[in-house]
Give the backbone structure.
Amino acid sequence: MKFTEEFLYHIWDAQHLNEKLFTQSGKQVNIKFPGRWNTDSGPDFKDAIIEVDTQTLKGDVEIDLTSYHWKSHSHHENPEFNNVLLHLVYENKNKKPYTISENGTRIEILEVKDQLTEDISKLIKHYSNKPYSEKDRSCDLFNNMNITETEQFLKQMGMKRFEKKIKRFTAEHFFSDFDQLFYMGFMEALGYSKNKYQMMQIASNLTYKNLKEFYNKGMTKEEFISILLCSSGIIEHIPSIICNEQKLKWISLFQKFPQIQILDISWKLFRVRPINHPAVRILQVTDIIYDSLETSIFHNILKPFSFPKDNFILRDFKNKLYAYFQIKNNYLPERYKLGKTRIDTLLINIILPLAVVYSREKKYNNLEGTVYTIYQSFSGLPSNFLTQYMEKFLNIEQKKIVKRNAINQQGLLNIYYEYCKHHLCEACSSK
């Protein structure tokens, strides 16, 4: 069967796989979280959570049409692939039960040719390998929808994207508490598209628990800043709005913590706007993180959700949230404070899905209901390059619907990531 590797990405991401899966070595696989699509070098999906027999593992997933591609793409010589825990292939042509990584580790092979759901198997039989043309601006899906149908479909896709985020955090909660989950998500969100994984590296290696331990031993706020900036290596690229004297002071303070490893992070700083510089983003949030170390950053985040029963007011909620995140910073100009748009994005992508995970664990039904009220009624965020790309397939009235609510924008993004990104027009139009 001839089709592109991108189609396999869609199969994995959307989990068009049987409920019971078995590797080539005979082990049963349960997919807790398929991972994050990797737009950089390295494995195709990062930070997947997979149960192999009874052992829950966290790592990367590499996807190839056949098992031969592991060597033909030189993955067996690349250390970047040493964290791969599952090699997904359409067909295991070499018939060996394992793939071998650069460091000699055996990687389970999941051949999916005969383990696909019925809907995707039918689609494969009719799958067209027609090349995508950028000049083709027509979309059968939206062309055939009226305004009411468009809004209903976008909300449906928006809820689907939201539930994916909840599933991701639920799976990651197996390894991390709520403080660490928010801290990692917070740092990732501050990295934007260019440096989100780099910012996550800081939170993964210098955990919230580590920071609390340092705090309990007397770590000052200045020392905390020095730890974040110096251990990440971003101190060497700090922008000119920070004077050299202050930079040298932080470097000196960091010498008190010889036990902290300096990370080898490849920062992407080319054409990064000054306000989006990773060092600026770190400084924007040091007060928020440091001031939470005595108690809990996650429980601080939950405080704006507190309202008298049946008296929730979205405007008051947003004001509480902005007040928490927009505190004065002693090292940055006022214009560099965390913007409301960034806080809104953090709310939609991190805070709300995490709050659902927490509410379900604690059986706080009122909190979960409040979260869904916020998500379904929250006004639209500013367009980004992806929503702008998708809007070219919409008519004027459909564009207005997208801009009206965040859930509609999230729905459009879900369509992009599931279908448009991989040019799966046939699969999309069949929805």
